[in-house]
Amino acid sequence: MKEDTRPDTPQPCPVARSLELIGDRWSLLIVRDAFDGISRFGDFQRSLGAARNILADRLRRLVEASVLEMRPAAEGSAYQEYVLTARGLDLFAVIVALRQWGEGHLFAQGEPHSLLLDRQTGRPVPPMLPRGDNGLPLPPAQTLVRKID
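Below the sequence we write its predicted structure tokens.
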């Protein structure tokens, strides 16, 4: 398992460093599909419509970065499956935040789109918000990024 996934010239910004690894369209859509239960190369390709070489490259990178791991197929066939690792599962909040931002800003009122639902209640997942120590929503104006000098 490759632990150090930083680029040759490490970025001091966590956002920039994260984007180096998962910031392209295909990588994020692969992670989204993995959360939706897709695990085989052919199924990713059918879902995404990505060229085989691009899909193979992104899957390889995600495996090298320990976001996905390859396992023998559960039913014992010769196929390999791509499964989210603990590191990959930690991207759930990122995918949900992108989904919710898109729902709020990229669809006309009443325009149909997929929904993320709570399995227990069947209701849409509530909006994600950063929260302060007191549990209240934390607006951007109440945050500060301390840059490295």
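Residues 92-105 form the longest helix (14 residues).
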